[in-house]
Amino acid sequence: MIADWSHEVVLAATILSWFIIGAGLAQTTIYLLQLVVAGYALSNRPPVARSALLWQRYGDVAPPIALLVPAYNEALNVVESVHSMLALEYPNFEVVVINDGSKDDTLQRLIDAFRLVKFQRPYEEALAHQPIRGLYSSPMTERLFVVDKENGGKADAQNAGINVCRAPLFCVIDGDSILEPDALMRAAQPFIDDPERTIAVGGTIRIANGSKIEAGRVREIHLPRRLLPLFQVVEYLRAFLMARLAWSSINTLMLVSGAFGMFRRAEVVVVGGFTKGSMGEDLDLVIKLHRHMRDKKRKYRIQFIPEPVCWTEAPETLSVLARQRSRWQRGALECFFRYRSMLFNPRYGRVGFLGFGHILIVDVLGPVAEVLGYILIPAFWLLGILSAEYLLAFTALIFTYGVCVSVCSLILEEAELQRFPRARDLAVLTVAAVIENFGYRQLNNFWRVKGWWQFLRGNQGWGEMTRTGLGGAGKK
Amino acid sequence: MWYIWDLSILLSALSLVIMLFLIARRLLQERRATVAADQRRQLLAALIAFTENRDREALKATVLGVPAGVVIDAGFEFISLLRGEERDDVLVAFIECGLPDRVGRQLRKGNVAERIHAAEMLAALGSEDASASLLTALTQDRSREVRIAAAIALCDLGSLPLLGTALDFIGVAGQRSRRLIELFRRFPRSRFNELAVHASRVDASPFIRAAAIDALAHAGGFGFADFFASLAGDAAPEVVAAAVRALGLTGHAEAPAILKRAMANDDWDVRAAAAESAGRLGLPELAVPLSRLMDDEFWTVRYAAANALRSFGQPGERLLREIASAEVSRSQRTASLILAEGPAL
Fold first, then answer.
1. pTM of the model
2. How many CA atoms lie within 13 A of A372 on its CB side?
3. Contact residues on chain A for B267, CB-CB shorter than 8 A
4. pLDDT, tens only, B133-154
5. pLDDT at A5
6. CB-CB under 8 Å, B27 with A193
7. Which of A92, B50, B248, B325 gives B59 a disulfide partner, CB atoms 3.0 to 4.6 angstroms apart?
8. B112 to chain A: which residues are within 8 Å by CB?
């Protein structure tokens, strides 16, 4: 009787272990494939070195762009941010700041700094959003418009901006991010090279913590001095240079970051704009675009290009980072289940198989399987239920392949882009790429499982995102 | 399952070794970068001195003393700031130093970005064999961006093959690029007929045809008005919209009738273009069809129609006020919005 029972336990433990190792194996295989595809794509697409050349080459044919900047309680940085956006190097653009019912004096600061006056501007009420209280223009520059509206959240503010803007392309950026001067010109390039098919383009987000920032510009690039943002530098490299570049090169890019993405307005309006109240409104929009274009059987491209850079501030404390990661996890789950009919649906081709398959393995199953593995695999081995082979396979998938994938992302960056200015930075990042797999990765997965739990409980809160401010001023 | 472990150790070790190699390479590059920065400063100083004393021999001595890569990079950045005789003199010095050969090699062997830049530099240098090198790039390069850059450079040098042939070399995928608009805008007046022939080819892509019409409208002027009028009846909406916009720039005796027909087109882009052109040409006889367009299902069309009416001056504004004070409708709302546009009272 006891022997029968132990046999069942061993069988159950073996099946569970196979599930955990299988999920890890699938995830690792995806990462390694992404590395190969991204490496190939990067080697075939070397960057243009100087932005002056781009201006000469594309200046006359660059399409108009509206830069949409939602601002909620951004009084401390908003004026400096808008000044830096107005100084971007692009021949034809307007900046539309959307004050999303801020409780502080964001609007008043803008009114004072740019001598804003109320203005009537006819616009298409194509997307629903909270009522607009007023539109403002500036006698100092015809490029700036401010939309003052009642609070409705980021997606709602972006939808208001899409309604008000008149350019065929719009670029969304966070109010506290910093665009490099030539970022618009570089991001617009796919819209110039293939204007009929390109409907969205994402650029690289980089972490500005530690860099020297003056007058809304990153003057000197430095690595963060604290460990937590340093690990995030490696993480962002992996996410952008490896995953997004790889999926983009096979037209399966599922995410154009809400912190910096450029879209063709007409298609975004047709799919209903950003989904209000969504935890992952950027992922949601890109999935809607894929679904719409495939339903209509139209040829299209959603691209990631590594050159245009937007700088952002990474969380420096565990509590803020935990909230951010749990929210990202909820966003991914929400989109996965909302559009689950696309999963492995032949109608959606590689988007259904590769794009949704990736979300399933990496975002839906990945964190749960990994956290289960941390607990069960060593326990089964200690109890003598599983052989050391299983323990080593699990260790390999989590730690050694983790090191390999992180270091390879860094190799891609150095071999093709070389954006870190000093050899010393590379050495520091290499060490960070190794040690992030021992502790930081586990924490991250714990937060993601927490996100799973919050998703199941229907927790829709964004949580407070405390920032110190890129210019150095503290804000919440 | 041992192979999972073994392979992971092998791959991780390999990645770390490669990374260490790259760090070492970077250390070497940092040292070389300091030398290159000095050479760049030296060259720029010589170029600035040349613009003052025109001592070509001294400039050539400096150019020959620094690596060609530095001259190609910094030298061309500098000449993009010069114009006229000064620029020509620097270019002659560059040619005498054998720079076209180096740039030609970059056009053949560089990466995509370098090859595009090389095509632009060869157009600036305008040396004897520049056209031959560019023609080779147009016909043989793997990248469509390079082929387009070579076509633009050849156009600047006056050596572009027949347009149809050049477009065949650029390829179907390249024919979607907005860069072709730039190519067409650089076309010499003596070859406008080629653009016209291409614009009327029904087998060509509508995007290319529209780009050709646009270039002709901006540079060709009234001489092509009849041609645009004939294309306003084309089957491709993109071509019709471009022709209607072109008529708005050139004008034509038949413009009112053509624009009125275009305002009833099934394609919203054509209707919007017709409304814009009616406003630009100032054709108050089209006020009635324009006021009908203010009820169009597309905002862009409604907005263009209302703007056109407003551009007619007092008669148009009067009509807009009448519409704005009528019963609530899409037209009424559009008219109200247009009349309110501007600083709030």
1. 0.89
2. 16
3. none
4. 999 999 999 988 899 999 999 9
5. 64
6. no
7. B50
8. 44-46
* Rounded Cα–Cα distance for residues B49 and B43 (Å): 10
Looking up tokens 């690792």 gives A28
A chain contacts of residue B22, beta-carbon cutoff 8 Å: 411, 414-415, 426
Identify the residue among B3, B22, B145 best suited for mutation to test binding to A, counting A beta carbons within 10 A and taking the highest.
Answer: B22
Which residues from B are below 8 Å from A189, CB to CB? none
Model pLDDT for residues B204-235, shown as the tens digit of each residue: 889 999 999 999 998 877 889 999 999 999 99
Confidence (pLDDT) at A48: 66
Q: Is the ipTM of this complex over 0.90?
A: no
* Contact check, Cβ <8 Å, B5/A392: yes
Q: Do A122 and B27 touch (CB under 8 A)?
A: no
| Domains assigned to chain A | 9-43+346-456 (no CATH), 51-342 (3.90.550.10)
Contact assignment for A400 to B178 by CB distance below 8 Å: no
